[in-house]
C-alpha cells in the first residue's frame, strides 16, 4: 500500500473528490470504539429498559430533525441523506426489532441494538451493488446516534474542531459531515468508503478534496502531522519534503485556476472549436441532485434512475407517490428535457417489497424491462404516473435492458393500456410523449436498425453494454481491469448504433459512466453522439474539454480508434492526437470509468 523515502510517506487510497490540500491532520476518534457492556435483565427491568431505548431513539430523532432544520445552505442539497436516516430510525424492523430483542433475550438496550444493527448490515453486505453496500454505513450511523444517547455521550466530535485541518477518520457519519464547518476543513481522509459512499457524495458536492478507503489511516497519521491530500489521484503524503511540497502547491494552483475557469463557463452550451454543439445532460438517482445539475450547467436529465423509491422503503411506492415525485422533477426542470427510465430492478438491485426468485445469474435474469413485463401491476402504476406527470414538463420515457424488439412492442402496448385506463377514469395525462430504448445489450446493438422503427430515441447504457459484451461482471473487482470503455469493440458498437439512429432519423445519446470521463470524450465526440449524460459534477470539465476540441479532427480520430486492436492503443492515440488540448480536464477528472 505504501512506499517510502526518508520522510515522504506515500499512501494510496481512492480519490473520491478532486482537489489538493496541504495542512495539519486532525484525527477523529472511532465512533464504534465504545465498549458495550452486556447485561441480563430481571423480568421487572425489561419494561424500563424498553422505555430507556424508546427515549434514546426519540432523542436521536429530535437531534436529526434539529440538524435538518438548521442545515447550512451549502449542505441543503444533501439533506436527503439525513431524511434517509430518519427513515431508518422509524423503520419497524430496526426500532421494534430492538425492542423485541430486549424482551426475547432479556438483555440491555445497547446489546439488543447491536444485534439488530449487525443483522441489518449483514443483509446489506450481501447486495452486490456498491451503492447499496454503502447504505450499511447509514444503519451504523443511526445506530451510533441512539447508542450515544444510551451511553450519555451525545455530541459529534467534529464540532470540537477549531482550526483549519485535514480530518482523518475511520468513517464519517452524514451528521458529522453536516457539522463540519467548511472554513475549518481542508480535506477528508477516511479508512472506509468509496466514491459512492455518502462521505464521497457530500465531499464532491461541497468540493472538499477527499481520499477514502485509505486502510490504516488512523494508525499511520497522527494529529498535527503535515500531510498532502490529492483527491484526484487518491494519494496522501505524510511529512512531505520541500520538493514534494513545492510540486503539490504548484499542482494545487493550476487545479484551482482550472476549476474557477470551468465553473464560470459551465452554464454555457458546449461547442467545439469548429462550431459543433453537443447536449450535455445529467444522470440522477434522487431529486435532491437537481440543484447540482443546474449549478453545474446540466442541460436536462438524460437519465433518471427511478429505482430509489422502490429500494428505499419496505413497501412498494403507490402510483400517487410516483406521480408526485415525477411531477416535482418535471416542474423543477421546466422546459429542459427529463428522461425517466422505467424501473431497472433485478440484476444487482433488489427491493425488499418484491418477492424474488433465486437466480443463478441475476444479471442475466429477470431484470429491467423483463421484470416490468412480468409484473404488469407494478409497471402499470409507474407508466400511469409518468403519463400523468408529463403534463407538467418536458418528460420522455425510456425502457432499460432491451434485448429483443418484441420487448419494446410489448412495453408500448402497456403504455397504451395505461393511457386508456387513465382516459376511462377521466384522470388528466399527456399521451404524446417520446419513447426511447436503452441500448445496453449487444443483441440490441445489432438490431438497432429495426428497433429504431419502434422508438423516438436511443440511449447507450455503456456500463451494462460493456458488462454484457465482454462477459465482465460490473461489480466484480477481480475482473475490473478488463472493463475498458475505450476498447475498439465498445467504440464500434457505439458507431453502429449512431449510424442506425441517423438512418432512421432519431437522436442517439450515451448515459454510461464513460461519458463523464474526459479521456473518453474526443472519441465519443467523433462518433457523433447527439448528447452525453453524466454525473452532474463532471459536467463543467467535460464542457470545457469539448470547447478545446475540433469536431472534424475528432471524427478522424474516432475512425482510427475503431481500427486499433486494444484499449491501450486507443488511449495512446487519444493522448498523442489531442492530449494537450484537454490535459487539465483529464488530470482533474479521469477515474478510469
Ligand atoms: C448503463 O448501464 O450504462 C446505465 C446507464 O444504466 P445503469 O448504470 O443504471 O445500469
Ligand atoms: Mg444499465
Account of the protein in words:
It is a single chain. By secondary structure, the chain is of the alpha/beta class. It folds into three domains: 2-31 and 157-244, 3-Layer(bba) Sandwich (Glucose Oxidase, domain 1), CATH 3.50.30.10; 43-151, PtsI, HPr-binding domain (Enzyme I, Chain A, domain 2), CATH 1.10.274; 262-590, Phosphoenolpyruvate-binding domains (TIM Barrel, Alpha-Beta Barrel), CATH 3.20.20. It has 24 helices and 17 strands. The protein has a nine-stranded mixed beta sheet. Strands 10-11-12-13-14-15-16-17 form an eight-stranded parallel beta barrel, surrounded by four helices. Helix 9 (242-265) crosses helix 21 (539-547). The two termini are 22 Å apart. The structure holds phosphoenolpyruvate and magnesium ion (MG). Magnesium ion (MG) binds next to helix 18.
Number of domains: 3
- CATH level 4 superfamily of the largest domain: Phosphoenolpyruvate-binding domains
Give the beta-strand count: 17
Fraction of residues in H or I helices = 40-55%
| Overall spatial form | globular
Percentage beta strand: 5-15%
| Hetero ligands | phosphoenolpyruvate, magnesium ion
Helix/sheet category: alpha/beta
* Alpha-carbon Rg, integer: 25 Å
What oligomeric state do these chains adopt?
single chain
End-to-end Cα distance, whole Å, is 22 Å
According to CATH, what is the class of the largest domain? Alpha Beta
The CATH architecture of the largest domain: Alpha-Beta Barrel
Main sheet record? 9 strands, mixed
Kindly state the mean pLDDT as a whole number? 86
Figure out the total of helices: 24
Low-confidence stretches: 1-6
Strand order of the largest sheet: 1-2-9-8-4-5-6-7-3
What is the name of the CATH topology of the largest domain?
TIM Barrel
